[in-house]
Specification:
There is one protein chain. By secondary structure, the protein is mainly alpha-helical. The protein contains five helices and no strands. The termini are close together. The model has no long low-confidence stretch (mean pLDDT 84).
Length: 148
C-alpha cells in the first residue's frame, strides 16, 4: 500500500475542509442571534452524552478508586470534596461566562474575531495542502510511520 498516496489524500481533504470553513467565516456579513421558543431536549442530550463518555469511568476506575482504597479518611474526604467542588465550580464558571458572553457575541468585535479565525483556518489549510503535495510527490520520508 502506498502510504504517501493515502496521507496525501487525507491531507488534501483536510485542507479543502479548512479552506471551506475559513471561507465561510470570512464571508459572514452579520451574526443573527434569534432564539427558538420551541422546547429543546438539551438536558436529555447532555445526560446521554455524559453517560456515554468513557473518560469519567476511566478516571474513576483507574485513579479514583485506587486512591480511595489506599487513602486514609482525611485524604478520602479531601479528594471527594476537591473533586466535586472543582467539577461543579468549573460548570458554574462556564455558565456565567456564557451568560456574560451574550453581549460580546452580538457585537462587531465578535465578527472581527470570527473573520480572523477564518484566516487562521485558511492558513492551516495551506499548511495541509503543502503537506499533501509533499506526500503525493514523494518528497517526505514516511517509512518510519509504516508499522509493517
Amino acid at each position: 500500500m502506498n502510504l504517501g498516496l493515502l496521507l496525501g489524500i487525507i491531507s488534501l481533504s483536510g485542507a479543502l475542509v479548512l479552506f471551506y470553513l475559513g471561507y465561510r467565516d470570512l464571508t459572514i456579513a452579520h451574526i443573527n442571534l434569534k432564539t427558538d421558543t420551541t422546547p429543546s431536549s438539551s438536558l436529555k442530550k447532555g445526560i446521554l452524552t455524559n453517560l456515554m463518555n468513557p473518560h469519567p469511568y476511566v478516571f474513576r476506575f483507574f485513579i479514583g478508586v485506587p486512591f480511595m482504597i489506599k487513602g486514609n479518611t482525611f485524604e478520602r474526604v479531601a479528594f471527594v470534596l476537591s473533586f466535586l467542588s472543582s467539577i461543579v465550580g468549573s460548570k458554574i464558571c462556564l455558565a456565567l461566562l456564557v451568560e456574560k458572553g451574550k453581549e460580546f457575541i452580538g457585537s462587531r468585535y465578535y465578527l472581527i474575531v470570527i473573520k480572523f479565525l477564518g484566516l487562521i483556518l485558511m492558513f492551516f489549510g495551506l499548511l495541509l495542502a503543502k503537506d499533501a503535495t509533499g506526500y503525493l510527490l514523494g518528497q517526505y520520508d514516511y517509512s518510519s510511520l509504516n508499522p509493517f
